[in-house]
Amino acid sequence: MAFASKTRGVLIALCAAGHAAAGVAPSVPIGSSRQAAAEAMVSIELRPHVKLSQTHVRLGDIAFLTTRDLPVLRQLMALPIGTAPRPGSPVNLDRDTIARWVETRSGLRAPDGASSGRSLVIRWEGAEETEIESASQQLSGETIVDAARSVLLRWLAERSVRANVQAASAARDLMLPAGVPMLRVRPLAKQAMPSRRMLVWVDAWVNDRFVRTTAVTFEVDAWAPVTVAATRMDGGTVIDGIVLAGATETREVDLTTVKRGTPVSTGSDGRTNLTSDKSQRLRRALRAGEVLTDAHLEPEPVVTRGNWANLQARSGDVSVESRVEVLQDGRKGQIVRVKVPGSHAEVLARVTGPGQVEVQP
Question: Which sign does the torsion angle of CA 80, 85, 87, 91 carry?
Fold first, then answer.
């Protein structure tokens, strides 16, 4: 019987997978000897349709076998045919192709190499083809969305006072193998911030075995009280408690509208959520009504352009100090340009502390 090339390609893949799984060398006769195998008349009745719950397909799964030789019967039933198809994608295999495969793998064939239809050892009966289908179950898309939504809402609750999430589109149902299904939602990044559209990945497992993954996209709103500039703040402004109290205010803002950084918030004890305990300043000007985030801040330099600093120069045991003008901002450990009064020459010096720089010989 002729079949489409796509079906034959699947058949070849199934047989190759069965060969690899079984680890059986080609043309090895079943039974104690080739003579014993040849004397055993085997009747194989192909079933028209089978539904399997296991991964690997054996001859005994797709056919009824009859013989008086019990060892031959057992070994033929265990003969690998291939790997079961994916759930929801049944495969049709024709009897002639299966017969050639079985005769080649078992060694039970006519002495002159005749095809299965004229074999003196195996008699084929039953259906002309068999449809192999994997037992499956359908997991509703709504179940997947609910699992993802639950995890996302818990994540948002740690960052906002109220939140709303809506699936961007209906999730497709999942076709899974038979067994006990379980959904495991991948955790969201701890350092991430809420965004307008968020993707949540969900892994589907059956009987503690990973099967597949799918993603659910949500439209998100997440509101939280954050620090907002009450008036314009110039770049370079040092952010301390006095500035926060006088030039900022707390407002409830949708966090998904914040483009960069983590918003600065102030607790009931007056302490902020800034991770650095060092003095910080604005990188650039902040407009009135703009949310203050850590992306707007940078550590305050310990020497600043236009101010004076003490320069220490060492040469062996000799140390000389002088007063110099700082030509660029610098933090501890950085190299900055300084100028000695009355001289046009610039000197490179390393910042050692507030108002302190040094040069090395």
Answer: negative
What domains can you pick out in the chain, each with its CATH number? 5-134 (2.60.480.10), 138-221 (no CATH), 223-299 (3.90.1210.10), 308-359 (2.30.30.760)
Q: Are 98 and 68 in contact (CB under 8 A)?
A: no
CA distance 167 to 199: 10
| Two structure tokens written together for 340 | 């000695």
Structure-token pair, residue 295: 């992306």
Rg (CA), the chain: 38
**In a 3-state reduction of DSSP, which class is residue 191?**
coil
Q: Average pLDDT by consecutive 10-residue portion of the chain (361 residues)?
A: 37 42 40 45 92 89 92 91 87 92 76 44 90 91 96 96 93 88 95 94 94 95 93 87 86 92 73 66 90 88 88 79 89 89 86 87 64
- Which residues on neighbouring strands pair with residue 136, listed in sequence order? 177
pLDDT of residue 274: 65
